[in-house]
Amino acid sequence: MGWASYCAGTSVESAGAETFRSGQTLTHARARERYQPQFDGLRALAVLTVMVDHFSADVPNFPLPDKIRLGATGVRLFLVLSGYFITASLRRARDRMDAGEISAGQTISTFYWRRLLRTAPAYVAFAGIAMLLNIGAIRQNWPWVFTGTVNWLIAWQNQWPLTISHLWSICVQEQFYVLWPLLILLLPRRWMLSTIVAVAFAGIAFRIGCVIFSVPLIARWVLPFGSLDSLAAGAALGWCGGRFTASRGGWALALLSFSMLTIAAVLRNNDPTKLASVLVEPLEAAAFVILVARTATGFEGNIGRFLSNPALVFAGRISYGLYVYHILVAMVLDRGLLSQLRFVVTIPSLRLVVFGIVTLFVATLSWRLLEQPIYRRRGEETRKDPMPHGNWGGDSVTRSPGVPRPFLSADPSA
């Protein structure tokens, strides 16, 4: 089952928070807290590219030429989004700390608790089902799964273990979140931006070192150090509160972004042992910083309507579940289908449709019956807690002034 062994190269996790405009007062920032559904549209597009990439991995040049690796590019978008939302939310908490409204201990402990409530339910459900059904290599590697270190297992073994390989990206982000709140909340403000930039360059330096010392490509991809520049790029945007408004120069920015993504795609298909290959991730991250900054304002016209499409927005809301469950769904169907129905697996286009629909169904059930009830519980705790609403679990984003506000809550599930 060739496609099943290809569980790497992309990542998605639900991300959302409120952006913070630099120089605004705290009261002004709170007043502008809005839900921006177009971010959910972006997340949906990214997770769909991942699913298509994985479900069709054993079929040459399907549905796109092999040189177009949209799934690998999707991970960059989500890492940038994750760094952006988390840092913007932490900055708002930092403002409240500096104003004496909350303590650092309260802020940090609440952050970690909410991260756990956000990521653990679907993650544990996936692991439990996979272990119960003895799918892939999860029983042999369960300690790595439940300690959130699957990416280190992959780097150590230099191979992708079935069923759990896609968890590497979730592990990378959670490892990043162990220390990042401490930096944003405790480091002196005058050092913050330079420190974020230094973190970004540390990620590039890590990949340069991997090329120089011939570190296996898998390790270069899955270890947390290799994602630092993408996370930090989003973090810099979140800390500075940057956004782009609609203007005549918008097409120039769009062209710049497209050019950087094109160059990155060309470099990705070249020899990964050459130093030029380390530019792939920074180029993609820079392009997506522009996209995120523009989305914070809100696209208008056809792009805005497309990204705000209700179906796409819902897929974005459940994108974490779509990512977590999609490999499990594919492997269960591959193993459990009757011989009369094997054509579902052998016909690539039909496989994409069936696997995608079943994954959507499973992720929706998880959202409605497991994740959303915990979201609501977390919302009740938030109202009792002095912490600001934000990306404690990837479920809230903002809408800028001048764009109609569809929700009063920072939680789109409300």
Indicate the mean pLDDT. 82
Radius of gyration over C-alpha positions, nearest whole angstrom:
20 Å
Provide the β-strand percentage band. under 5%
Distance between the termini: 41 Å
Q: Main sheet?
A: none
Residue stretches low in confidence (pLDDT < 50, at least 5 long) are 1-32, 386-414
Global shape: globular
SS element count, helices: 17
Written as H for each helix and E for each strand, in order along the chain, the element string is: HHHHHHHHHHHHHHHHH
- Structural class comes to mainly alpha
How many DSSP-defined strands?
0
Helix proportion range? 55-70%
Explain the overall architecture.
This protein is an all-alpha fold and 414 residues long. Helix content is 65%, strand content 0%. The chain has 17 helices and no strands. The longest helix is centred in the C-terminal third of the chain and has 37 residues, at 348-384. The chain starts with 25 loop residues before the first helix and ends in a 30-residue tail after the last helix. The model is unreliable at 1-32 and 386-414 (pLDDT under 50).
In short:
By secondary structure, the chain is mainly α. It has helices at residues 26-31, 37-55, 70-98, 104-133, 142-146, 150-157, 168-186, 189-212, 217-222, 228-240, 250-268, 280-297, 301-307, 310-317, 319-336, 343-346, 348-384.
Task: Name the descriptors.
17 helices, mainly alpha, disordered N terminus
Protein topology:
Layout: H1 26-31, H2 37-55, H3 70-98, H4 104-133, H5 142-146, H6 150-157, H7 168-186, H8 189-212, H9 217-222, H10 228-240, H11 250-268, H12 280-297, H13 301-307, H14 310-317, H15 319-336, H16 343-346, H17 348-384
Helix pairs in contact: 2-3, 2-14, 2-15, 3-7, 3-10, 3-12, 4-7, 4-15, 4-17, 6-7, 8-10, 10-12, 11-12, 15-17
